[in-house]
Task: structure prediction
Amino acid sequence: MNYATVTFRDDVRKFGALCAHAGDMLDGWNHGIRGHAQPIAPSPHPFIALVPISLRLGRFAILGIVVVGLLLGKPAWCQTGILPPAVFIRIEDGRLPEVVLLERAPSPGTFSGKGLLVWSDAGREQWRVVPEPQRKAGSPGALAMASRFTSISRGEQPVPAGDAASVATVQIDQLLGQLAIRGAGLLTPPNFGRCLQPQITIRRLPANRKPHFPADELVLRQGNREILRVRMNEGQAAIRWSEIPGLPQQYRDGLPAGEYTLRAESGGESTTFTVEDDEIRAWVLELPDELAGLVGSKADPLYLLVAVEHLLAQLDENGRPQPYLADALDLVEANAMDVARSVGAEADGTRSVPATLGYFKGLREGIVARLSGSPVPKQAAERDGATGIAAVDRARQLIEEGKWKKARETLDSPELADSPRAAALASLYRAVILAESGPGADEEARALFRRAIEELENEPADAYRARVNYASFLLGRAQDRLYNHAFEIASGVANPLIHALVNWRESLDSYEKALELAGSLGPAEAAAVQVNRARLYRLLADVIRTLDPPRAGGRNFAAGERSAAERARELAESVAEKSGVQIEAMVLAVALETLAQLDYRAGDTRSCCRHANRAMELYLAAGSVAGAEGLHRLLGLAELQGSGQPSAEARKRALDHLLVAQLLAEVLRDRIPADQAGLTRAGFFARRAYVHERILELLLAEGRAAEALRYAELAKARALEDVLSIGAPGAAAGSNGRRELSEILADWPDEVAAVEYFLGTERAWAMVVDTSGQVSAHSLADAHGQAVASRELVERVGQFLSGMGHQADKMRPRLTAGRGFDHGWQDTLQQFCLELLPGPVLGQLRKAKTVLIVPHHILHYFPFVALVTERDRRRLSQEQMAMPKFVLDEPFVVCYAPSLTAWDLLRRQPDAPIRQVQAAGIVEFLDAPSLPGARKDIENLQAVFGPRIHKLLPGRDAFETDARKLFDERGLLFVATHGLNQAEKPLASFLLFHPDRKNDGYLTAGELYAGHVAADLVVMSACYSGLADRSPLPGDDLFGLQRALLHSGARTVVAGVWDVYDGTGPELMNGFFHELASGKPTPQALADSQRVFLNRLRQSDQVEPWLHPYFWAVYTATGDDRTRVLAEE
Result:
């Protein structure tokens, strides 16, 4: 290829000449770089990070100048009110700790006051106890040590059960779903209903709606064939299958799968029903059966609660409700007495649920009402605290029970648009649902809360609801920031701790306003606020403990933590021990749970379990699965508390509790309304990722690697898996198409191996699946055998990736200054190799032809093929480029996947070879640097694929509207343009096209998520197109361009993890095109292209700067490793 770089290099013979003419030789330095933002490196200022100033795109450059001007004119906090530069946690003798937001960062050495000062220094947080003890200031470098204690704090602190809306609202009796209107006669089996259990129960409705049941004979038929007759005596309302006399032998275990008709001989109404087959029955009951195994008995009230609600929440293959009402009623009635005994209730000798179990009694009444077509009792409007708007009150009850999806559907009712008050309340509770989804839906939730507060301020009861729920939302955000801060700081996220403290202070202000409003409403409302304030002060104690952990020589600010914890206990006890006031069960449960958490922090395990068990009874009585989930997590962690190693019995009890918590999280997750990108459910699981980590640790300690891998899988890419599973084989047959890990391993391809990484709060693991499907686990360690700290690994990888970006621009000044090449990169990559692919792991991988890499967190952006397996041991001069051996040189090819489950779902799609090609390439832009390499890319594509190119948008024809249409075409789609990753807002990451009347030219990840992609293979020759979130959520769902394409239909995506250098990019792509055209799978074609490029340089007798991985390791292949183009004949 005729590059200026090659032409000049042929004339260069000496290093001195090379340096003298470096600007000419590295003409590619001035070639277009396909994107300019540096997404990994932290911005020097948190506001500058919002604006890609270096992109040089017209409108961004103007905005960047404006923002910089504002920042230079006044402090950002004064100018925008977004974030203060410093926060002071102050404590004075005899007073509560106070969080003060400062307008400017003071000098710590001269700052007066007693407390803990946190301030921002160029986007990086510092903290110091003042007056200053004889110790150096805290810093990000010291964070690793401090955060070790913090990470325990993060994980050990359970997320409070449910949303605080449960505390803010008044508990309302259950209103179950929509009515199923039908005539009188038979209650069960339901007409046109489906039954899981073959041993049905026949129930009759009273004649004339009175409690009178005449003698009758019922005839059961299948088609035209009579199966049996059932005699019903006068006064007999129901008969179980086992009570039917004279059952034929073949039916004693129940009815075979199929459709049946049951008719009364007296001429009463008949019912037609279906008995499900064994496969569907097993699939539907899989989750309840797993829970029964964990809790030890189907008589456990938690099992009954989850199993019944699971049966009522089932959907058919088209996503329509298909509740198993008869089975749910059978379960409630059959287990009522056992459940009553398990919670100490008195048995009354009947099949109805004892009145002491109020929730289950109401649940039974609701099921019967749905079966009979009777109205569900509407006590909600009669209870104190109801809004008086039926749809809103139904939604509030559903929220309290953790049924957020149904609540959202209720809030979308057209009747709520009839009045401003109803619409504002609907906005409020939509925001509450989004708050439960975690940080993924932060902006939308804030906007809805603020709208509700503004529009409801003149109604004291409504204003109270709005203030309490908004305060609880802010509390949750402060908690998210605190528990995730170590990875966020290591990843370059600006000021997570200051964000947490600002949210804390705003939450306190909102609670205090709610407390003022509660004075006019009653003691129950005031109690709800006090419980939430207790949670808030407990969180402040955690913040102080995070920044001032125990260490040699004692602590500097233990008084601050003690004061905050004492205030939290005082507030919680004021509610838990209140007499003479009717306190709602949910409020009392949260008070007891808060006391349990405080006991846990204080190391009082006995009191922790006592308070937690009391709270559990209240949560179960109220039907709160979310409450039970949080308490099982806490009880599991409590079993592991104490000095020394816990006993085997304690570890088993802890594992059982944590497994129950994880299973309940799966139940709750399905109740979260899903958005197009999956942000809401990803945020929900982010809050629960620590449970998976602790389960994984316990399983690995027992040598149960395959089971540990299962829980690592359950913590990854769930939003993507949800979408992929919809169209997977088997999805229409009743299951969701997603296979269990055990099934994937049993069907493992014999030429594939995999490495799945899991970065915990403290340690990191690599779990290897060998070519036979066997699993082994390896704790990542350094060259000295010491365990690698996860946050330290994240920080080093981030620094490496930051250094890789724009490497050409960094080499040029070194060469012109006569300092030659820096060889340190090979040592860095060798160290990473020893840690990420230690000898035993690499040995297993060498038996495979394809190695699947399932990264975690920042490792999604790491070029594993560039890992150095053997460094160049020559004595290198400055004029030589190192030539080590890389993972690329190993006898396998690398393919990335979001998770093994996602890979399996992609791989189970039809594997038809690609027959046509589409492309778009832009050389000249209106507001961006030109890309001469893009012209070469398109020319090479045409030369290789010729007549197979179906559509081509060159240069001036590449308008966004037309480019969008290319994504709707099957086959290979190649895009050569500028790309930008917005690390803080990955849904805003984009590919740049020309604007037109319909679109602005910026095709964003958010727009791709909202659309459909028919292309099988998408190749993006654009900078940073393989990146996403700066610090991925703990659930490891990403939301950049690459994940958007897989989410929307692509099977495989090739993208860049840093800037694509235009001087060498076309050569790599041309080789890739040729390898693809020969019929090789995408990862193989990419690897062979890189190998050809690298080996040609190694054989050269000239100075070859292009040997640096920056020039050839930029692209990665993610998704289905089999995707290929039909080979040319």
